[in-house]
From TrEMBL:
Its EC number is 2.7.11.-. The keyword DNA repair does not apply. It is found in: Mitochondrion matrix. Belongs to the PDK/BCKDK protein kinase family. Residues 218-339 form the Histidine kinase domain. One of its GO terms (cellular component) is mitochondrial matrix. This is Protein-serine/threonine kinase. It holds the Pfam family HATPase_c. GO terms for biological process: regulation of glucose metabolic process. Signal peptide: none annotated.
Length: 357
């Protein structure tokens, strides 16, 4: 099997831009639909193959963790199933292909929880085998690849009329106000305050900007940043959160400033890490989307910020935190607005070179 895998590892993934995907969606016909189908049919095994090889580089004692092994097996199954699909020449064959893709999306909803559980157990038990920063880089790369596969898969399902578009015309103000309303409702439901009038005042200031983006991604990021600011502001008994939004020629920019007490050096050093998140054991499936937050209100999973960073960087954006212990934290988010940057795949960046399973 590894000989077959090597054939795919010799091929580099072909990254796309947001603009290319949107163009195909807006100008779809049968020819483009079939071209998309065969691109996804060829591209998915290549992207999966590179992830499988990274799993094989894990030290044996980590690779045999049941949660890590579960994801590894899922990837092999998907690799085998999709690479054996013949060329797609008509809409009937595309219908069958779409069925395979939809089944794969459903089955792989366990990937994020299983990975997080595995990383947590490895961090607790075998920290001396692989440093946590390497496990974090492994997790980042795996989730980045997962996003890339889901984007091209869901995009093709949209072209085939199986899903609603994953791309939306957004404005910075509307996206913020939607996330703010949900964060406020959740703060009340969680009992952080007794009633709406007790919530901190969120002060919006800036210039609105229109842009097209994957709304699931940006909503997830802003929810996480606002939710953290809300919780710490309430705990620190402060009255307001300041949110600034603007743009330049290439990017949409957000800043969320709170007076929630800031973070200690130790907390700040691990803010992007996937370790020490034992609450993930309470979750069986996770897509990392905004509409899942309601179901998991009472469970602090602890992967919101690292997952947000992967989302932000995927299309060439960025997310940064500045904290003053004893005062508060500023979160800065940059989202590209032109859609001309390739997917951030980092295929040549192997965090586990030298650690063969």
């Amino acid at each position: 099997m590894n000989k077959i895998l090597d054939n795919y590892l010799g091929q580099s993934p072909t990254p796309l831009t947001l603009r290319q995907l949107i163009f195909y969606e807006r100008h779809c016909n049968t020819e483009r639909l079939l071209k998309s189908a065969n691109y996804v049919r060829k591209e998915l095994p290549i992207r999966i193959a590179h992830r499988i090889r990274e799993f094989q580089k894990l030290p044996y004692i980590l690779g045999t963790n049941p949660h890590i092994q579960c994801v590894y097996d899922l990837y092999w199954q998907a690799f085998e199933k999709i690479r054996n699909i013949p060329e797609i020449n008509n809409r009937e064959e595309n219908e069958k292909f779409c069925k395979v893709l939809m089944e794969s999306l459903d089955v792989h909803q366990v990937v994020i929880p299983e990975l997080a559980k595995g990383i947590y157990e490895c961090e607790q038990t075998y920290q001396s085998v692989v440093a946590m920063n390497k496990l974090d880089r492994f997790m980042d790369a795996t989730l980045r690849s997962r996003i890339s596969r889901r984007v091209i898969t869901e995009h093709h399902l949209v072209l085939s009329g199986k899903k609603m578009s994953i791309f939306n015309n957004c404005t910075s103000y509307d996206t913020l106000t939607k996330c703010i309303q949900i964060v406020q409702e959740h703060a009340i439901k969680m009992g952080l305050v007794n009633q709406r009038k007790d919530l901190p005042n969120i002060i919006l200031d800036g210039r609105d900007t229109e842009f097209t983006y994957v709304s699931d991604h940006i909503e997830y990021i802003l929810y996480q940043l606002l939710s953290n600011a809300m919780r710490h502001t309430i705990e620190n008994r402060k009255q307001s959160i300041n949110v600034t939004f603007c743009s330049n020629e290439t990017d949409v920019l957000f800043r969320i400033s709170d007076q929630g007490g800031g973070m200690s050096k130790e907390t700040f050093a691990n803010v992007w890490s996937y370790g020490s998140h034992e609450n993930m054991n309470q979750i069986e499936q996770l897509e990392a989307k905004l509409d899942e937050q309601e179901r998991n209100l009472t469970i602090r999973l602890g992967i919101g910020l690292p997952m947000s960073k992967v989302y932000a960087e995927y299309w060439g954006g960025d997310i940064n935190l500045m904290t003053m212990e004893g005062y508060g934290t500023d979160a800065y988010l940059k989202i590209p607005r032109l859609g001309t940057q390739n997917e951030n795949l980092h295929n040549n960046d192997s965090p586990l070179d030298g650690a063969i399973m």
